[in-house]
Amino acid sequence: MAKQYKTIGDEAWKNSVEKVNAELFIFTYGSLVVQLLRDHEDCTAVNQQLDKLGYNIGVRLADDMFARTSLDRCSDIHATADVIAKIGFRMFLNTTPTVGLWSSDNEFSLLVEDNPLNDFCELPPRALGDGLWYSNVLCGVVRGALEMMHMQARVWFVRDVLRGDDTTEIRVRVERMLDEEVPAADE
Amino acid sequence: MVVVNNLYIFDRHCECIFYTEWNRTNSPLAAEAEAGRGSKDLVRGNQVLTGDTSSSRSSLDGQRPLVWPTTSTSTTHRVSAESLRNVAMEEEAKLVYGVVYSTRNIINKLNSKDSSQGGNPGGFTSFATNTYRLHYYEAPTGVKFILNTDVGTTSMQPVLEMIYRNIYVEYVMKNPLFRIDPKVSTPIENDYFRAVLNNYIREISSAAMPAS
C-alpha cells in the first residue's frame, strides 16, 4: 500500500499538476510573511494568521487532490498519514516528508527534510526570540484538509531548521472523527 | 441520445448549494406547498425552539442568496430575500436529498460497509423509475451530485466525475471568493461555473451515445 501511494504521488506530480516557478512561489510566500510581520508586529498573531491562511487553502486542496488522483477515502489514520505525506506534499510541494513518531495511534509527525519554503530564508533574531514558525501555513493546510475528510485535528510545529534545529517536524493529532451530518428532521 | 433533465449539488452539510435544469416536464410541488404552508410554518416554529441545528439553518435561510433559478427578470431588484424564497423548490431538494441519503445508507448497510463518516462504500450509482433515471456521485469530501436523465441512459458516472473534477473543483473550489465555512453553506453563484456546466451538458446531450 505504501509503495502504491508513492507511485500515485510521483505519477500525479509528473502528469496532473501544472508547475510554477519555485523561486516565484518562495519569494511570494516570503514577502507575505514579511508583510504580516509588519502589520501585526507580534509573532504569535502572525502564526495564527498563517494558520488561518493555511486552513482556507487546505479545505480547497482536499477536493483538488481528489480531482487529480483517483483516490478514495482512507480506511485508517495510518493510510491517511501516508496519503498526506506521499501524495499531498509530493503533488503540491514536490517534497516527501517521512511519517514517524507515532504515539497513541492518533498522533504522528511529519519530518520534512527539505522544505522548499525555507530556501533563501534566514530568520532575524527578533523573530527567533518571539517564536515565529515561518512555514506555519503548512499546519493550517493539513488541518483544513483533514477537516474536509471529517477529521478534526490539531497540527503544530515542533522543530524547524530555520530556528536551528536539525530537522523540520510537524506534529498532527487527530482529536476526533466528525460524523457525517444528518439532514434536519422535518415535521 | 442522452436527455439530461436537471442537476442538484448538495454539500457536506446536507444543503442544496446548486440546482439547474435543462428539461423539466413537471413543476415543483407548488400546490401541496401552498395548502400545507399554514401547518408547516407552525411545525417549523416548533422545530426552531427544540432542535439547535435546524434552528441555525432556518435563521440563516432568510439572508441566504438564492439557489433556484428565478422566474423574475432580474435578481438585483430583490425586495427581500424572504419574499422570493422558493419554498416548493426547497422542499423538493429536501425530498431528493432524503431519498438519496436513505438509499445510500440502505445499500451501505446491505453491503455491511456502514461508516459513520459517510462516503459511498456500497456503491450506490443510480435508480430508475418509469419516467426518469437518477444518477448519484459522491466525492470523497462529501459533496453530492445528483443528475436526472431519461430512462434509457445507463451510466452517467463518468459524466458526474467529469463535472466534479473539471468543473466543480476548478470553478467553485478554486475560487477564493467562495466561502467554505464549517457551519454555513454557501450557494454557488458563479457565472463561469454555470456557463461551463451548460456547455458540457450540451455536448453530452448532443454526442451520440457510445455503445455499451
What features would you describe in this structure?
The complex is a heterodimer of chains A (187) and B (212). In chain A, strands 1-2-4-3 form a four-stranded antiparallel beta sheet. Chain A is α+β, with helices and mostly antiparallel strands. Chain A is globular and about 50 Å long. The relative contact order of chain A is 0.16. Chain A has six helices and four strands, in the order H-H-H-H-E-E-H-H-E-E. In chain A, strand 3 and strand 4 (168-177) form a beta hairpin. Chain B is α+β, with helices and mostly antiparallel strands and 212 residues long. Chain B is built from five helices and five strands. Chain B has helices at residues 30-50, 52-61, 87-110, 157-173, 191-206, and strands at 4-10, 16-21, 126-128, 133-138, 144-149. A five-stranded antiparallel beta sheet of chain B has the order 2-1-5-4-3, with helices on both faces. In chain B, helix 1 (30-50) packs across helix 2 (52-61) and helix 4 packs antiparallel against helix 5. The two termini of chain B are 13 Å apart. The interface between A and B is medium-sized, with 27 and 34 residues.
| Terminal CA distance of chain B | 13 Å
Number of helices of chain B: 5
**Low-confidence parts of chain B:** 31-64, 71-83
User: Which two chains touch over the largest interface?
Assistant: A-B, 27 and 34 residues
The radius of gyration computed from the alpha-carbon positions of chain B, rounded to a whole number of angstroms, is 18 Å
Shape of chain A: globular
Counted beta strands of chain A: 4
